[in-house]
Every structure is written in C-alpha cells, then in structure tokens.
Amino acid sequence: MTEQTLNKIRRGLLYTAFLMVALALSYVLAYPLEYSPLGYDVVEKKDDAVTVQPHNALGIEEERITYTPTQDDEWKMRWLVDEIASQKMHYHMFFASIIVAIYWVGVDYLKGKSLKKVLLLSFSTICFAGISLISHLNGIKEITEKFI
Known about the structure:
Blueprint: H1 3-30, E1 40-45, E2 50-54, E3 65-67, H2 74-110, H3 115-146
Antiparallel strand pairs: 1-2, 2-3
Helix pairs in contact: 1-2, 2-3
C-alpha cells in the first residue's frame, strides 16, 4: 500500500470516528438529558385525558395544557402522545447535524477552502434536519392549540 492510500484510509476512519462521537453526543442531548427547546412532554396520561408540558426556546417549561377529547377524537390523543414520543428522534438528528456541520466548517476552513462555500454547505446540512424537526413540532403545536 502506498502512503497516499494509507492517508485516505486514516482520514476515512477519522471521519467515521467523529461521526460516531457526534451521534453519541446528540443521543445524550436528546434522550437522557431530554433537551427539547420548543418541544413538548407528556406529563400525565389517563384514559380520557392527557396533560402536555410545552417548552420555550431555552427548554424551560411553560404552562401545562390538558386535553380531554370527545368520543370521536380519542385517536387524536393517542396520536399526540405518539408524536411527542417520536420528537426525540428528530432532535437527535438535528443535534447530530449541527455537530457535524461545525466540524466540517472547522476542517474545511483549515484546509483553505472558501469560508462562504463551507458555510453554505454546512447550512444546507443543518437545514434538512431543521425542516424535518420544525414540521414535526408544528404538527404537535397545531393539535395542542386547538384544545387550549
């Protein structure tokens, strides 16, 4: 093997290791620490009602919302609980994309690439995960606003 091939393998392994660290760090933020700015938590779930705790942009709790559906809308309560449970996955991917984008900006800028190009590519990486997260949170917000 040539030195150039070994360098490519090392670089690939380094990127893979960093991606694993980024995924682990974002997992810790999203699941064990449950950091969810603008997110929601299910505080209490009964057979006929569910209490939801919204968070502001800093992740600080706001006033609780209690939803008691009509007989025909019981599926909305189950759907809301499922959507709130799945928001952690969206935050996990969003945090991972931010960490990876920051790494790419640093590495590519140190390699001498144009800062404008590097920032544009990093922004597009964050944008896709952010759009997914925002659309998910807007779906939850739409249901919660209807029963305030």
